[in-house]
Design brief:
Tyrosyl-Transfer RNA Synthetase; binds adenosine-5'-triphosphate; 3-stranded parallel β-sheet; two-stranded parallel ribbon; Rossmann fold; binds magnesium ion; 55% helix
């Protein structure tokens, strides 16, 4: 069975895009509890807190966001006996391997990363001067996160395509130079929901760290807030309800959200709304998302009441992750020519 690994940053609050694009598939990728694969934790998930310091951050908020996100992931359906959940900074191998792979990844590769190019374009030369070195280098941290666990598949949203591509390139380069060491990973995307757009700006993806409260549906938003945000979503000119990302980005986004939330195909949804108006569609999308999140919200409230249990879970997760990653890290040191202690 292929090892699955993925991560999420505690940079803000979990939103609909994270859930539809990634977390939902993490939950589904967990092996059945009774198989031997489950005991080896073939599905590994990580709150990647080391990634949260590449932009200015508040220490108290980071700690809070890390616990909240881990609790929410459990509430979403990650289960202790079917997968592993841990906090990245609890496993030193991630930071260590990043330094080692900094000797393999190139300046040119990092300079070509979309996130870095976009930021540079927006901020200009002077703005880039004050970006943290971590902002430039975090893709190598992400490569390390992935290859440390012999990961075959990385379930992610569409925006992570380039990062997983870098992980493949670095793994292949390392293997060619030092001998077969890393499994070469591949990204897996959901058929629908891989790129949920901001409700107010359907040309930009929904994001935790973008300040767009009205355009972002949080998993913990109360039902009234969810319905209101969807009601005021930006739609397109004309009144036809059809899926066309280029011509009708706002409506297409709503159709996709409804399709994934209810498990119906895009065509099925389109057929259902023939001759009907945007108001009908928005009402139904609101209802579907409220229903989708209700069980998660309830479970979150239960889990939040037991902080000791969360700490226990994360401790178990970190112990197993350390154990799983240690042989790979040791092999990397050896093959690169470092003398054993
Ligand atoms: P940030 O703005 O801090 O980067 P984010 O919302 O992009 O936050 P990440 O922690 O970077 O969230 O990504 C976690 C996972 O969620 C990744 O697999 C990513 O591809 C996925 N994801 C993020 N935004 C969306 C979106 N709008 N639609 C679908 N998937 C998404
Ligand atoms: Mg992101």
């Amino acid at each position: 069975m292929a090892r699955v690994f993925s991560g999420i940053q505690p940079t803000g609050e979990l939103h609909l895009g994270n859930y539809l694009g990634a977390v939902r598939n993490w939950v589904d990728s967990q092996p059945a509890a009774s198989t031997p694969a489950a005991r080896d934790h073939e599905a590994i998930f990580c709150v990647v807190d080391l990634h949260a310091i590449t932009m200015p951050w508040d220490p108290a908020e980071l700690a809070h966001a890390t616990r909240r996100l881990a609790t929410l992931l459990m509430a979403s359906g990650l289960e202790e006996d079917r997968s592993l959940l841990f906090v990245q900074s609890h496993v030193r191998a991630h930071a260590e391997l990043t330094w080692l792979l900094n000797g393999i990844a190139t300046f040119g590769e990092l300079r070509r990363m979309t996130q870095f190019k976009d930021k540079s374009a927006k901020q200009g030369e002077a703005g880039v001067e004050s970006l943290s070195a971590g902002f430039f280098d975090y893709p190598v941290l992400m490569v390390s996160d992935i290859v440390l666990y012999d990961t075959a598949e990385v379930p992610v949203g569409d925006d992570q395509r380039q990062h997983v591509e870098l992980a493949r390139d670095v793994a292949i380069r390392f293997n060619a130079r030092f001998g077969d060491t890393f499994v070469v990973p591949k990204a897996v995307f959901p058929a629908v929901g891989a790129r949920v757009m901001d409700l107010q700006r359907p040309d930009a993806k929904m994001s935790k760290s973008e300040n767009s409260p009205q355009g972002t549906i949080l998993v913990l938003d109360p039902p009234k807030a969810i319905e209101k945000k969807i009601k005021s979503a930006v739609t397109d000119s004309g009144s036809e309800i059809r899926h066309d990302r280029a011509e009708k980005p706002g409506v297409s986004n709503l159709i996709e959200i409804l399709s994934v939330s209810t498990g119906r195909s895009i065509e099925d949804v389109e057929r259902d709304y023939e001759g009907r108006g945007y108001g009908d569609l928005k009402g139904d999308v609101g209802e579907a998302v409220v229903e989708l999140f209700a069980p998660m919200q309830e479970r979150y409230r239960e889990l939040r009441a037991d902080e000791a249990e969360l700490r226990r879970l994360l401790r178990v997760g970190a112990d197993k992750a350390r154990e799983t990653s240690a042989p790979t890290l040791r092999q990397v040191y050896e093959r690169m020519g470092f003398v054993a202690p």
